[in-house]
Structure formats: structure tokens, C-alpha cells
Amino acid sequence: MSNDAQYVMAIDQGTTSSRAIIFDHSGDILSVGQLEHEQIFPQPGWVEHDAGEIWANVREAVGQALARAQINRHQLAAVGITNQRETTVVWDRHTGEPIHHAIVWQDTRTQEICDRLAADGGVERYRSRTGLPLSSYFAGPKVTWILENVPGARERAEAGDLLMGTMDTWVLWNMTGGVDGGVHLTDVTNASRTLLMDLRTLAWDPQICTDLGIPLSMLPQIRSSAEVYGKGRPNGLLVDTPIAGILGDQQAATFGQACFEKGSAKNTYGTGCFLLMNTGTEPVFSDNGLLTTVGYKIGDRPTHYALEGSIAVAGSLVQWLRDNLRMFDSSAEVETLALEVQDNGGAYLVPAFSGLFAPYWRPEARGALVGLTRFVNRNHIARAVLESTAYQTRDVVRAMFADSGVELTSLKVDGGMVANRTLMQFQADILDVPVVRPKVAETTALGAAYAAGIAVGYWAGEEDVVANWQEGERWTPSMDATERERLYRCWQKAVTRTFDWLDEDTGR
Q1: 271 marked as binding residue
Q2: Is residue 250 annotated as involved in ligand binding?
Q3: Where does this protein hold glycerol (predicted)?
Q4: 458 in a known ligand binding site
Q5: Least enclosed by CB within 10 Å: which of 1, 220, 325, 464?
Q6: pLDDT tens across 175-228, in order?
């Protein structure tokens, strides 16, 4: 670490945009660079990104952040990377060119591959090793799909010419030189989302890789979440800057929220919604539809595990109202509309656009708007959209209690939707616990910055993260208990209406 290093940069490669954020020692933001990338929908249920576009955007975002902060690389102690998890790219190690668009975490095209694997041992076939059910959500089957569907890919992979990675691996490989010496690594948190890693050994499981037809030569090396992986490439803006932290986005937010105690939990409200609870240094395997995942691992210290409830659709439901139904021009207007009515008017919207994730894991479910009468107007629907995120969160919290026996006493929250105070109040009401937002809401990027900074000694360790964390706002429950249970009972009834919807003839 150079003597004039005063800041740490985080690269946050998200589902809709790539950002570079520079933080100071207090965890406050100095500057941000951000560029959105195209969402590609080749057919229903398919979601892709152009990995080349994302790498170009990452480079530009880094330039924007440095320019806006009026600093150069010499003032950066380290760079951390956080990323949309499960989104997977396969590329040629010699040319650096992806052989197919990145397949995004929301994509459901691999359901057939998952069904094929589940024919022997069911969807729980690998759970005892990976902590995960067989689901189109995870990275492994996405690689299988590319190898089976891109002409010549299987032969190239077996010849050792192809590499795979989640987006952290793709960004790191390019940042450290790409075809000219780029390091091919991932961290334990991202590896735990592939369906290919053994949770206890933190190594790739050769048998699962064989079952999925993925040559081990394609896979990145697995490292901890906080160590120096490599340095910025000679012809980039971050020459020789240590790249020293990687955390999948939800684990990064958990880290940034200082959830280091067993039983502490956070919920991130973004494109999807992700609730993670720290379960300590032993993995807790779920009987209630949750995922067991690596929370973080700092250098050679013990691995911390987490239970996770993954909700596929949260903020993207508001985007759907805006873009597909043209109900308003700006996402912020959803709150204005919702506030014009007292309640949801009996309407419930279950956003099973790509099936239901935790705790149901029903890939054949599809979205439903139920409870409609002539009384219901667009204000009620706007309210139902906000409420659906809070109800889905309660579904996950119930499952977490059943698995862990740990009662939630408060919920730390972050992500774009926490700006919506109506949603946050309703979340506190429907959970019957206080909901707390930190002063710095960018906890995902901050978590990656902390991991990188700890690795190079810029921060001493978790104690510095705890010291920096400050409460920004708090919402306390004020709803009558009878009303709370009535609303939630109706929600549960609405969820069942989405089951078994997928039509075998059309696949829709």
C-alpha cells in the first residue's frame, strides 16, 4: 500500500449497470461512475447480457469515478469487486472473446438440464454437498447449456481452450491483463453459487462437474474473499493497483452491513430481494427452501456461512409496471400512486415471472394478479406491487426461523428500494420487527471495498466495519396484529394461485 493511498475503489458489476465507487476510510462515498448495459431477452424466460459491453462499461465507470474524485490510482489502496451472482460467461482463453452472451441469473432456459439431472436423486440431489437445490438459478447448468448448444463449444472446452466464470471472474481476468496474463480466479462466495463447489472443502466437486459435463480446466481457482489476487494491467487506469477483495453482491451487502454476529441478518431490495442470515462457522442445511451459502472468508481465517432466501422479482416488478404496462414514467411514482389509497383494495400481485424462488422453488409458477373487483384501480395495483416485496420477505423470514431457530429482532435493509418509505413501513408492519437502514445505503459496493481494504491493511478488520456502520433511518411496526395476519393469510392464498401454471405445449 503506497503512503499516499487514502481511498478504496469498489467495482459493482450489477444486473442492470456497472459502477465504480470510491470510498474513504470512514466508509463515505467520494465519487461514483455508472453505466447501464442492455438487457437482452431472446425469448420468454431467457435473459442475457453482452459480457464485452459490460467490460467496456466497467473501464469507463472506473474512469468516471477517478475523474469525479479528482484523484489517480496512486491514491487507491486497493480495488474490490462485487457482482451479480450466478450470471455466467464462457470465453476463449486465447482471444478473450466470449463464445455466447452471458446467461443471467434470472434466466430459466436450463430448466430441462436441471430436470434431467433431477431424474436421478431429485432436486435435492446435490444439496448435502453444495447447499443448493437443482435450479436454473445457478451457474453450473448455464455452462452446460452453452457447451451443449454453441457449435464446437464442447470440443473447445475439452481441448482446454475455454474458460468459464461468474462476472467477478470475467472482470478480474480482464482487469489483470486478459489474454496477457489475466488471473482466472473466483472467491468462495461466488463459487458457492455455481452448484459445483463442496461447501465444506471449498473445492470444486469433480463428480458434479462430470455429471454436468463441465471440464475442470474451465473452472477458476477458488480463493478467499479478501486477499491480493493480482494487480491492475499495465495499459489500464489502475496499473499495479492491488485487486484484493471479491464478494458476490448479497454477501458483500451482508459484509457492508456489519452482519458478523451469528443470527444477524440483512435484506437487499434490488432487482430481486435477498435476505441473508449469518449462521456462523458451520453450514446450516435448510429443510424449508432456503439456500446454504458461504457468507465470507477473510484470508486464511475461518469461513462464515449464511442461510439465504432469494426472491427473484422485487424492484424489477416496479420496472415492469413502468416499462411493460406504461403505468408511469419514473419508478419513484409508484410510491405516489400507492399513497393515494388506504390499502390494496383486496388486490395481490405475485410476481412469479421466472417461477417462484425461496422458499417455494416452483419453476412452473407464473405471475398472477388476484382479488380484482371493479373497485380496484391503478393505485391499488401500485400498492399491491410494493406490498408483494414485503410479503415475499416475510415468507423467507418464516423459513429462516424454522431452519435456524433464531428469532429475528430487527432487519437491516439496503438497496435501491429502501428509498421507498411506504414499502419500508409496510415491511416493518408485516414482519412486526423494526426495519433499519444504514447511513450509507451503498452497502454492496462498501462491503467489497471493506474486503479489499482489510486485505491490504487499509482497515484493521471487521471491527473497523462495525465502527463505521451508522443507523440512517428506522421504521417501527404500527399495524394491528389481526390485520397483519389477515393480509398475510390472503397473500399465502394468492401464492397458491400461481402454481402449476406453465403450459407443456407452449412452455409459457
Answers
A1: yes
A2: yes
A3: 85-86, 137, 249-250
A4: no
A5: 325
A6: 999 999 999 999 999 999 999 999 999 999 999 999 999 999 999 999 999 999
Task: State yes or no: 85 annotated in a binding site.
Answer: yes
d(CA 489, CA 485): 6
96: left (phi over 0), alpha (psi -120 to 50) or beta: left
Residue 4, number of CB atoms within 10 A of its CB: 11
The residue whose grid cell reads 487514502 is: 6
For residues 142 and 212, what is the distance between their CA atoms, to the nearest angstrom? 10
SS3 4: coil
Spatial distance between the Cα atoms of 399 and 402, rounded to a whole number of angstroms: 5
Structural domains in the chain?
7-250 (3.30.420.40)
Give residue 452's identity as a one-letter amino acid code.
A
Q: Is the pTM value of this prediction over 0.90?
A: no
420 is annotated as contributing to ligand binding: yes
pLDDT of 461: 87
Query: For residue 297, what is its C-alpha cell?
Result: 472468508
State yes or no: 144 annotated in a binding site: no
> Sign of torsion, CA 324 328 332 337?
negative
Which amino acid, residue 449? A
Q: Which three cell numbers stand for residue 390?
A: 414485503
Closest by Cα among 7, 8, 105, 140 to 316: 105
**CB neighbourhood size of 10 (10 A):** 31
Say whether 95 counts as a known binding-site residue: no
Extract the C-alpha cell encoding 84. 451479480
Q: Please check if 120 is assigned to a binding site.
A: no
Alpha-carbon distance of 484 to 477, in angstroms, equals 10
Q: Which residues touch 355 (CB under 8 Å, ≥6 apart)?
A: 108, 136, 312, 361, 362, 363, 364, 365, 366
- What's the pLDDT tens digit per position in 7-39? 999 999 999 899 999 999 999 999 999 999 999
Mean pLDDT of the chain: 92
| 86 known member of a binding site | yes
